[in-house]
Amino acid sequence: MTSIAETDLQSFVLLRLGDRRFAIMATQIAELVAPSRIFRFPHRTSEVEGVILRRGRIVPVCDVAEKLLGKGLLSRRFYLIVQRRYGAQTEWVALPVSGDCELINAEMTLPSDTDTPHVSGWLSHAGDVIEVLNLAALTPGPTEAAPTPTSAPMQQEARP
Amino acid sequence: MRPLSPTKTPAARTEQIILFRVSGQIFAVSSASVQEVRGVDSLSGAAKEMSYPALRKVKYFVRRGENSVYVINAAMHFGLPPAPPALVFVLRRTRTALLIDGIEKMTSMSRLQALPLAYCNEERTWYRGLTALDQTVVPVVKPDGFLTPDELFLLDASLSQEADAEAKHQAELNAPDEQQDEHNTSITQ
Question: Is the pTM of this model over 0.90?
Answer without folding.
Answer: no
